[in-house]
Design a protein that fits this description.
Number of domains: 1
Number of helices: 7
CATH superfamily: NAD(P)-binding Rossmann-like Domain
Strand order of the largest sheet: 4-5-6-7
Distance between the termini: 43 Å
Radius of gyration: 18 Å
Shape: globular
Strand content: 5-15%
CATH architecture: 3-Layer(aba) Sandwich
Largest sheet: 4 strands, parallel
Number of strands: 7
Oligomer: single chain
Length: about 250
């Protein structure tokens, strides 16, 4: 299961997992594309894909979709809470209060609801499962102009820590995965923000000019690696290593 799968990191992860043969449940506010292209061109040897337009803040819709995925695929073994937003950007004192509440509803509420549904599913059957909540380095590093984003990602980290403690006995392993900087529409929004609202914008513009991004393929492959090491002793907070790093010279 991948939430927020219509674009950016979620879409890229879905495409890579489809290439690797995973059956998928994909949802987002807008219907995600089929990761294999036009569905009528796919044959019976391709993985199963279930897609729907679902807002992760709508618990009933999210639970109903997960039930559809389970009915078609038999079970959900990996749940990736990726859906999230960045705005509003700017000083907290100048932010619209309704936009602040919507931000928390999506970034925190969506993770809470998705994690709850998956935890109850894992409890209901044998074999365990892996929860991956997409977080950010902003969970630990304060950025002026990002009060809601930093706060929501810090909350995601702690939600994941608590789920790992509560559900380890049922075989659920939880990761708060920071993917690094990825060239998505969210990054385009960051780079287009005026420095008066986000003073550290030049850092992200410099990353773009040098092309030092992590690809979604790189992130998905790292998630697959985590599936092979999941267990009670696994670290909960994980940072995807930078893809473009010069090798150390002796």
């Amino acid at each position: 299961m991948v939430t927020g799968a219509s674009r950016g990191i979620g879409s890229g992860i879905a495409k890579r997992l489809f290439e690797l043969g995973y059956s998928l449940g994909l949802c987002a506010r807008h219907l995600p594309e089929h990761p294999g292209g036009r569905s009528e061109n796919l044959d019976s040897s391709t993985p199963t894909v279930v897609r729907s337009a679902v807002d992760v803040t709508d618990f009933d819709a999210l639970e109903e979709f997960s039930a559809d995925v389970i009915e078609v695929c038999g079970r959900i073994d990996v749940w990736i809470n990726n859906a999230g937003i960045l705005e509003p950007i700017g000083p907290l004192a100048d932010s619209d209060p309704l936009n602040l509440l919507r931000h928390v509803e999506v970034n925190v509420g969506g993770v809470l609801l998705g994690s709850r549904i998956f935890a109850r599913h894992v409890r209901s059957r044998s074999g365990g499962g892996v929860l991956v909540n997409i977080t950010s380095g902003a969970a630990r590093s304060p950025y002026r102009g990002w009060a809601p984003y930093c706060a929501s990602k810090a909350a995601v980290d702690m939600i994941t820590e608590v789920v790992a403690l509560e559900e380890g006995g049922s075989g659920l392993t939880a990761f708060a995965l920071a993917p690094g900087v990825v060239d998505t529409s969210m990054q385009e929004l960051i780079r287009s923000t005026d420095a008066s609202r986000f003073p550290q914008v030049e850092r992200f513009r410099e990353i773009a000019s040098s092309g030092r991004f992590n690809s979604t393929k790189w992130i998905a492959d790292h998630i697959v690696e985590l599936l092979n090491v999941s267990g009670a002793d696994s670290p909960v907070r994980v940072r995807v290593p930078d893809e473009h790093v010069e090798p150390t010279k002796n």
